[in-house]
Amino acid sequence: MLGGEALSSVDEYYLGSRALGKLHFFLTYFATTYSAFMFVGLVGYSYLYGVGTPGFELIYIMGTAAILSILGPRIYERAKKLGVSTPTQLIYTGNGSRIARYLASVSYLIFMITYMSVQVTGPAVILSRFGIPKDVAIVLTLATVFLYILR
After folding, report:
1. CA distance to 17, 20, 28, 95, 107, per residue, from 1 (Å)
2. Is there a single domain that holds both residue 61 and residue 104?
């Protein structure tokens, strides 16, 4: 339920009935991007490798903003026209290729492995600062993630 009313579609749940403005999209992207990777991983990377790291981050955020500004509205309109909610649905519905759908799914899996490793390692590094061995901290973090998923 959202605001006391029952949700009627996937679009309503994931995309706010497609009624969100550009500010909402920006804030959603910002919250997703600036997670443990940026606040723990990138800070540690900066500490280890120096001041060139903020250059990476600035190029990343400016490049992403440019791509989203140029392609985002077209992708949004196409997805709305086709009535799809996810990138994989857009790829499949847009060209009907099963191979493209499977390649997209495999690429998500590959990128999620690296993303999740940073998301789990970040809190483990913080816990290790409190005297918990890093291996134990990783297991505790993973256990917390699994408990959250299964609840």
Report:
1. 14, 18, 20, 34, 33
2. no
Identify whether 2 is part of a domain.
no
Segment 122-132, tens digit of pLDDT: 788 888 888 99
Q: Which domain covers residue 115, as residue numbers?
A: 86-151
Q: Based on the number of CB atoms within 10 Å of its own CB, is 31 exposed (0-12), middle (13-18) or buried (19 or more)?
A: exposed
pLDDT at residue 40, rounded to an integer = 64
Tokens of 140: 């505790």
127 and 110 fall within a common domain: yes
CA distances, 69 to each of 10, 22, 42, 62, 72 (Å): 25, 10, 25, 10, 6
pLDDT classification of 1: cutoffs 50, 70, 90:
very low
Half-sphere exposure for 138 (CA within 13 Å, toward CB): 6
The residue from 68, 85, 102 where one domain ends is: 85
Q: Return the DSSP state at 5.
A: B
Over its C-alpha atoms, the chain yields an Rg (Å, rounded) of 19
